[in-house]
Amino acid sequence: MAETARIPEALRTDTQHAAPPPRRRTQRRPIRRATGPNQKHHRTIFISDTHLGTRGCKAEMLAEFLARNSCDTLYLIGDIIDGWQLKRRWYWTPAQTAVVREVLKKVDAGTRVVYVPGNHDEFLRAYCGRSLAGVEVSREALHITADGRKLLVLHGDQFDGVIAYAKWLAHFGDWAYGTALVLSEWLHVVRRRFGLPHWSLSAFLKQKVKNAVEYISRYEEAVARAAHERGVDGVVCGHIHHAEIRRIGGVLYLNDGDWVESCTALVEDGLGTLEIVRWSSASSPRTRAQASTPIEAAFIPA
Ligand SMILES: [Mn+2]
To answer: Looking at the DSSP assignment, which residues form a beta bridge with residue 141?
Structure first.
């Protein structure tokens, strides 16, 4: 039997061909099934910028997302644990412990977990090439999609140097602008009462937001350019807390967003289709309370 298997295709006789054909579908079938009840299974899940160790981290939402979504491979692509914040002041909640527990549960269930450290968890870069509690730590990774595309997986902070815009502006999103409009009205009334000339906070912030938008697109272009130079089909990163899937030049740019503001993940199905999912807890009444901390969240540096 073993010898038959070694006969090259061209030398086989018809009778050997009559044997049951080899299963071609194995490529699509996950090797290990890590799906439990009430779980949605993905081929791959990419998450980043969870900033565990900060108040901004939406740990309950993240723990729930991890518990309800299984995968063959989980990529944790940086700023997972916020070492900068923890160095200043220890902040850790049971929900954040639950996140760690959910990741380890996945390891135990047979999920391959790859951790690519970012700038906030750069202390883990010393462990690249090692495995910690079953989690592979790596400076970057190459992911092959189910349909055979090569995706470079990295955090993306190395591209900050390429672009001259202030990082924090990237986090100054629509929410801040909306709030600013209201503030601006009040400011106008107050200034007029004190006989001060008109100064538009909203115009000032509009300029800042415009800079933020410009920052994001410059960042995306820099990452895509680097991916193109590396000869890959696409790149998956995080860092700027702005989930996106778009084609830049000949490269697919994918950003999995964050778990401080948007609660987003990038997922791949068994056919290689990639999409961004925004997790909103159906069961949790905490959502509203969590949504009330955007100021702090908005100013966590990338
Ligand atoms: Mn970062």
So the answer is: 153
CATH number corresponding to 39-160+233-298: 3.60.21.10
Which of 53, 86, 107 has its CA nearest to residue 259? 53
Tell how far the Cα of 145 is from the centroid of ligand 1, in angstroms.
Answer: 24
Residues with CB under 5 A from ligand 1 (ion): 79, 118-119, 157, 239, 302
Rg value, the chain, Cα: 23
> What spacing in Å lies between the alpha carbon of 229 and ligand 1's midpoint?
22
Ligand 1 centroid distance, CA of 250 (Å): 25
Alpha carbon distances (Å) from 73 to 134, 175, 219: 13, 33, 27
- pLDDT tens digits, one per residue of 127-147: 999 999 999 999 999 999 999
Is the CB of residue 53 less than 8 Å from the CB of residue 96? Answer: yes
Distance CA 147, CA 160 (A): 31
Sign of CA dihedral 177, 178, 179, 182: positive
Element (H, E) at 45: strand 40-47
| Distance from the alpha carbon of residue 239 to the mean position of ligand 1, in angstroms | 4
What does the pLDDT look like over 214-272, one tens digit per residue?
888 889 999 999 999 999 999 999 999 999 999 999 999 999 999 998 999 999 999 99
How far is the centre of ligand 1, averaged over its atoms, from the C-alpha of 158 (Å)? 9
